[in-house]
Design goal:
about 425 residues; alpha/beta; Urease, subunit C, domain 1; TIM Barrel; 17 strands; globular; binds nickel (II) ion
Length: about 425
């Protein structure tokens, strides 16, 4: 058993923070008791000045794109994909994807992420990287159309057979890239395969303005009818990345227990795609999670940044500071993404829930004046991922004070830099 003594616990369902002793055992939180309950025994000493909050769940991304960071800056989505990203990605292989993913895992662990969604190719390599590091992941093979669309679906199903549930760290979804890259018939096959195999689905959805005009059946079907006719509404869980151009009139359609929107505020800003109407989604009771998207459209994999951007953007564009509270921003960054990736009992600090959390140094100057009531605002608006001392996944500290126990960070960074040269 590990004891975190006298830490300041806050999660998305706490009214205020509270001083607790937190114990972990077998990858789970085994006790959350008032501080001082465990007076004896070896423990991490929080001394009432270390916050303990749930680990972030990065609900949308392409981890190995860390290799393409800084490549194709300042272009709109379609130019960026066609002229820069897709030609470079054609040179990828399993080894390069492994190296890029390991690099992304270092960055994610050091910024508090304990679970990440990924849609890419050579996904065996991504699964192996996640298992080697001990981080949790929801993985899908990015499926696009063409002659080998069916083979890509078969590859995604094989990924599920090989890795679904591996060591409690990996869950597999099906990953049709987007309605403008996947023919409607293939979409129907993917939805049918998802139901047959009890798998969830993640895809890009309504990311850019005018994108729907590129959809094969876009003239005859609106987005909501498309989802229904393709057969996606009754899959286990449907994770829709972006939804920047979701029609406000149609929002109630998406308020379903098996649908989650992954909001990627920084990627949407950087690619000039717009700002997703998240405040309206909240009002319509849509489950909204947060993601970074790939490192070449962000360019960070820092969920703390996303949490702050998400909150500030809705206040700003709607000219209403009461929208998207600090507590709700944390909920989006933690609990709201868990179910879609197959990790229930994840994202809150509770007995029996996953021991996935981070420790935050409240002695940093920008926390002066914090108390148990105001801590949420201090964390979301004043804090940053630089304040994270430790990131714990399934009870194991995978990042601690600038070090990655069990990983050769120096080598991972050097190998990724070499891999990048091969691509560009
Ligand atoms: Ni994406």
């Amino acid at each position: 058993m590990n004891i975190y003594r006298d830490v300041v616990v806050w999660d998305a369902e706490s009214e205020a923070a509270r001083r607790c002793d937190v114990c972990t055992e077998n990858g789970k939180i085994s006790a959350v008791k008032p501080a001082g309950t465990y007076a004896y025994g070896a423990a991490y000493e929080g001394r009432g000045r270390t916050a303990l909050i749930p680990g972030f769940i990065n609900a949308h991304g392409h981890a190995a794109m860390t290799l393409l960071r800084g490549f194709g800056e300042d272009l709109p989505l379609m130019d960026w994909l066609r002229k820069r990203i897709w030609p470079a990605e054609a040179k990828l292989d399993g080894e390069l994807v492994y190296k890029g993913t390991m690099l992304s895992i270092l960055e994610m662990l050091s910024t508090g992420t304990t679970c990440f969604a990924d849609m890419y190719f050579f996904m065996d390599s991504v699964a192996e990287a996640a298992l080697a590091a001990g981080i949790k992941a929801g993985l899908s093979r990015g499926i696009v159309g063409g002659d080998d669309g069916a083979a890509k679906l078969a590859e995604n199903l094989k990924l599920a057979r090989d890795y679904n549930g591996a060591r409690g760290l990996i869950n597999v979804q099906l990953g049709p890239h987007a309605p403008y890259t996947v023919p409607f018939d293939l979409m129907k096959d993917i939805a049918a395969a998802a139901k047959e195999n009890d798998l969830s689905v993640q895809l890009h959805w309504l990311e850019t303005k005018g994108e729907w005009d590129m959809v094969e059946t876009g003239k005859t079907m609106g987005p909501e009818e498309y989802l229904e006719k393709a057969g996606f509404l009754d899959v286990k869980h449907l994770l829709l990345a972006h939804c920047v151009w979701m029609d406000r009139e149609k929002m109630s359609f998406y308020a379903k227990p098996n649908i989650t929107v992954a909001h990627n505020p920084k990627s949407n800003l950087k690619l000039g795609s717009g700002v997703a109407p998240v405040a309206a989604m909240n009002e319509a009771h849509i489950n909204v999670a947060l993601g970074t998207d790939g490192a070449s459209s962000n360019n960070r994999l820092d969920m703390w940044d996303e949490m702050r951007y998400a909150a500030l953007l809705q206040k700003g564009v709607n000219m209403d500071p009461s929208l998207l509270s600090a507590r709700y921003a944390l909920r989006m960054a933690t609990k709201n993404g868990a179910e879609a990736l197959g990790f229930s009992d994840t994202g809150l600090i509770r007995e029996g829930w996953a021991a996935d959390f981070m420790l935050i140094d409240l002695d940093m100057p920008h926390y002066a004046g914090w108390d148990l009531e105001n801590l949420p605002g201090y964390l979301v608006y004043a804090g940053s991922s630089a304040d994270i001392m430790t990131t714990v996944v399934a009870g194991s500290p995978l990042y601690h004070m600038g070090e990655f126990p069990g990983l050769d960070a120096e080598r991972i960074i050097a190998e990724a830099a070499e891999a990048r040269k091969k691509l560009i």
